Amino acid sequence: MFKECLRHGIVPFIVNDKDKMFYSMGLSEWQIQGKKDRLLGVCSLMQDDMSAVFDHFKIMHDKDSFKPVP
Prior knowledge:
This protein is 61% helix and 0% strand. It has three helices and no strands. α2 (17-33) runs antiparallel to α3 (37-56). The protein is elongated and about 40 Å long.
């Protein structure tokens, strides 16, 4: 999924142990009930975490999408 996010210009994310339960609940709600709010929220938070990693290592990027800047 990480490479697919990069390929489509989306900020990638990694599901950490602390987010795994909420991600799983979000997937279930989306698949069973068609609700996507929880899944979008947790993915957004994980993307924020990844943006912080980019900032820490001084990797230039667009905050809303992943477009590396040389």
